[in-house]
Amino acid sequence: MKAYQNSINIKLKSTAILLFIIVLIQACSSTKYIADYQSIVKKVTIDSVDAKFEEQAYNYVQKDIRPASKLSINVPMYNLFNTKDGRYKTSDIKPFGTPPAILDSTLVEISRTQIQKFLKSKGYRQAEVTSAIKVADKKAEIVFSAKPGPAYFIEKLSDSIPNANIRNLYESNKAKITHLHKGMQYDEDSLTYEREQIYRIMKENGYFYFLRPYVNFDVYGAEASSKTNKMDLNLNVTDPANGPHKQFNIGYTHLLIAPNPDGLPDSARYKLSKDTLNGIIYTDFSKRYRRNPIVRYDFLKQGDLYDIRNENLTYDRLYELNVFKNVKIDYFRRDSTSNKINAIILLTPQKVMSNRVEGEIPFNGGTVGFTLGNTYTNNNIFRGAERFELQVKGGLQSRIGNGAKVFSDIYQRDFSISASISVPRLMIPFYNPVLGGNGMPHTTFATSYIYALQKDVSVRRIFINSITYDWFETKSKLHSFTPLNFEYRFGNLDTSKVDAITRFNNLYYSSLLDRKDLTLGMKYTYTLNADKLNQLRTFVYLRAGMDIAGNMLQGISKLTGAKHDPANNDPAKILGLPFNQYTRPEVDIRWYKHLGGERQFIARLNTGLAYAYGNSILTGIPFEKQFFAGGSNGLRAWQARTIGPGNYNRQVLASDEVRKAVFGLDQLGTLRIETNFEYRFTVARKFFGATLKGAAFVDAGNIWNIRRGESITLEYPELDELTVFKLSKLAKQIAIGTGVGLRYDVQYFVFRFDVGLKLKDPQFLGSDQWVISKFLSGARDFKNSYNSTHGPDTYRFIQYNFGIGMPF
C-alpha cells in the first residue's frame, strides 16, 4: 500500500511539473502563432496623467489591446487549447484562457480619444492626448502621451428651480447630498452624482413621473479657448411642458399570483377578484398561498405618498420569501386628473420542492472514509412561504495500511437526521413586531438527532431542539437570538471489548464520551457586514456570539431547596439527569482589503472560550461544545481535530494498545486562538466555462485547556503542563502552516482545493517544532521515526483540503 501511495505521489508531482513546463513554454511563444504583419501588445503606458487618475485612465484603453499580467496564465492557457499547425484557430475555439492582445490601430485611436474625453471630464478642458506605437520582433508597445493643460475650478454656483415645492425639497436635502461646492475642480462625475441624488429624492417624495433629464446643468467659461481656468455652474430642475410636477399617493394594490411558473394567461384577466381588504385586492390563481403571509410584505400602502424605497422594499421581501421566481410591479391611473396611482404586483410561482444529494471523501494518511447526505426542501409547506428542510446524513471512516483492504477496519460511524421549519416573520407570543425594512426576519424551529460510534470506545446519542429568531437591524447588521436550546445527551463508554480502555478510563475523553446529561440554555449572535462578503471592497466583518446554559435550571434547583455539591461529584439533577452550566463566547473578526482588480487580502482572528462553572465545575464542557483546530476552514496544513491542545503529543500514550484504542478521537480544548492571512487573485478568467482563482495563505493558532484538570489523568499527569494555556508559552505552542489553493468559481458555487504545508508543529519541543526543515531534508527518516512511536497515527507534512465555498 505504501509503495502504491508513493507511486501516486511521484506521478502527481511529475504531471504537475510537466504541465508547468508546458505552460511556461507556451507563455514565451505567443508571437509564433500570429501572422507576419501582426504584433502582440506587451506594454501600454500612459504618460503625464495625475497619479490619482492613472488607474481610471487605463480603464479607457480598449480591453482587446490590454496586455495580460506577466503572472497570468490566461494567454498560455488559450495558446495551449486554441492553436493548430502553428497558427491560432479561427473556429472551434475552446473556452480556456483569453487570447493575446493583438495590436489594432483602430482600437489605439479609440482608446486615445476616450482617454482625452476622460481628462476633459475631470476638469482638464484643454487636454490633448497623442499615441505612439513601437514595434520590434512582433512585440508592440503603446504609449499614450497626455498634455492635460490647466485644471478648471468652479468659481460660482447657482440654480434655477421654478417649482417652489421642488426647490424647498432640494434645499432641505442639499447639505446631505451635494458634492458641488465653490473652489472645487470641475468633475462631470460630481454633476452626474448630483443629478442622481435629485432624482432619488424626487422619487422618494411622491414624484412618480419625474425623470432624470429634468435635471441639467449650464456651464459657463468651460471653452478650451478661455483665458482663465475658472468656470460657473448653474443647476436646472425643469417642469414638464404640460404643467408643474405633481406628487402622487398610492391607491389600491392588486396582488396577482400566476397559476404556475409559466406566468399569467390572458384568460385569467376575466377571473380577477373584486374584494378589497386594507387597500389590497388579492387573487391567487395557483391556490397555493395564504393571503396574510404574502400581503404582509407589500409596503405600498393605500394613501401613502409614493416612495420608490417602498417599491424596492416590496421587491426585495417578496423575492426573499423564496417562493416566487419573478416579481413585477406596474402602476396605472384611473384618470389623468387623479393624483393616485394604483399598483399591480404580479407574482410568478417557482418550484416549491427540491432534493439535494451531497457527499465527500475525507482522507488522510492511514484513514479513508465517506459521508453521504440527502436534503429535502419544501419552501411552502403550510402555504405561507414556510421553509421545511429534512436532512439525513451518514458516514464512516476506516483505517487502511499494512495490507488491509479498504473499509475492512471501520473505526468510526456517524448518522444524523434533522428537521427545521423557518417562518418568514418573528413569531413571539403576545407581541407582533413590524420588521422587514432591512431584511427578511425569520423564526426557525429545529430538531435533530445525532448518533456517533467510535469502535471499541463509545457510542454517543444527542437529541437537540431549538427556537431561533433572526432579524436585521440594518442591511449589514444581523441579530440571531435562540431563547430556547434544549439538548439531551446520552453517552456510553465501551470498556468491555478492549482492555486498554480500562487503563485509558481516567483520560478526559472518558468523562466526555460517557456522560449522560441535559442542557437548557440560550444563544445570541451578532453579525456585521455579512452582505459584503462577496464584494470586492475594503471592510471589516464581525461575527460575535454567546452561548449560555444552565442558569435557569440552577435557579429552579435552588428553589426546590435540594442540597448538592457539584465540586464533590454531587451535581444537581433535573428529570434524573445532571444539567450543564457554562458560558461560551466566540468572536470571528476579519479585515478584507481590496487591492484593485480582483485582488484581495484578508486578515482573520477567530477566538473562543468555553468555561464550565456551577453544576459543571467538575464535569466540564460537553464534548460537542469544545473547540478544535485544523481542517479546510482553519489551520489547513492539519486535518480537522488533529492538533493540540497546547503541546500535546500522543507519544505520551506509551502503549501501542492505548494509542490504537483512541485512534481517531478528536483532540479538543476549551480555548481557541486562530489567525489566518490570505491573498486572493485571479488565475484564468475562462477555464472550463468558469473562472479559476488562486490563493496563497498562512495560518497560525492552536487550542488549549483553560484550567488544570481538564486533561489530567492519574496515569499521565504531565498532560496538564502540556495543554493548559499560559501566555508565557504562547509562542512555543502556536502551530503555523502555509499553502496555496485554487478556487473554481462557477458563479453560484465555488469549488475549493487547498494544499497546506506544516511549518511549525507544537506537538514537538524546541527547534524540532520547525518541521519545515525536516520536510526539506530528511523527511523520510523523520516520518519513519514518528510512525514507530505514534502508530497507528502517521505523520504528513502536506494536507489536501476539498471544499465548497470560500474558507472564510
Automatic annotation (TrEMBL):
<dbReference type="GO" id="GO:0019867">
    <property type="term" value="C:outer membrane"/>
</dbReference>
<keyword id="KW-0472">Membrane</keyword>
<protein>
    <recommendedName>
        <fullName>Bacterial surface antigen (D15) domain-containing protein</fullName>
    </recommendedName>
</protein>
<keyword id="KW-0998">Cell outer membrane</keyword>
<keyword id="KW-0732">Signal</keyword>
<keyword id="KW-0812">Transmembrane</keyword>
<dbReference type="InterPro" id="IPR000184">
    <property type="entry name" value="Bac_surfAg_D15"/>
</dbReference>
<dbReference type="InterPro" id="IPR039910">
    <property type="entry name" value="D15-like"/>
</dbReference>
<feature type="domain" description="Bacterial surface antigen (D15)">
    <location>
        <begin position="580"/>
        <end position="764"/>
    </location>
</feature>
<dbReference type="Pfam" id="PF01103">
    <property type="entry name" value="Omp85"/>
</dbReference>
